[in-house]
Design a protein that fits this description.
This protein is of the alpha+beta class. The protein contains four helices and four strands.
């Protein structure tokens, strides 16, 4: 195990201004979502996302392919996630940002129901786009 909890947040956008996160079934995302118990089940995608977050985008070609398939709205790929925030049409842009997650303290949890706090560490991979180029 590692002393920190790096996590990759994937967000999609149709206009490049409003970003909506993709939620995974088992890994942290929404700061108010309670951690899930999954032992002995080991969810493959969520586990691979954790390993990808420990390295660099260039070291995870599968992750880049995953983003491309999300941008296409691939049904088998989208079904791996908790829900599809773009059920009618895939987003034109996808970005991935690396965060360092930590549990909040008991006082914060009781006061607002927030389980996690996170610190942005920067972009993980370049933004993927399926938007047509403008001459």
């Amino acid at each position: 195990m590692t002393p920190t909890r790096p996590e990759i947040l994937i967000e999609g956008s149709r206009d490049g201004a409003t970003w909506i996160p993709y939620e995974f079934r088992w890994k942290p995302g929404d700061l108010g979502r309670r951690p899930a118990f999954m032992a002995p089940h080991m969810p493959r995608l969520d586990w691979q996302m954790w390993f990808a977050a420990l390295g660099r985008c260039e070291d995870a070609p599968w992750f880049q392919a995953f983003l491309e398939r999300l941008a296409q709205g691939s049904p088998p790929v989208v079904k791996l996630l908790a829900e599809d925030p773009f059920p009618d049409q895939p987003p034109l842009y996808l970005r991935s940002t690396l965060y360092d997650y930590h549990f909040t303290d008991v006082k914060t949890l009781r006061a607002g129901g927030t389980w996690w706090r996170r610190t942005e560490m920067g972009p993980f991979c370049p933004t993927v786009t399926s938007a047509p180029e403008v001459p």
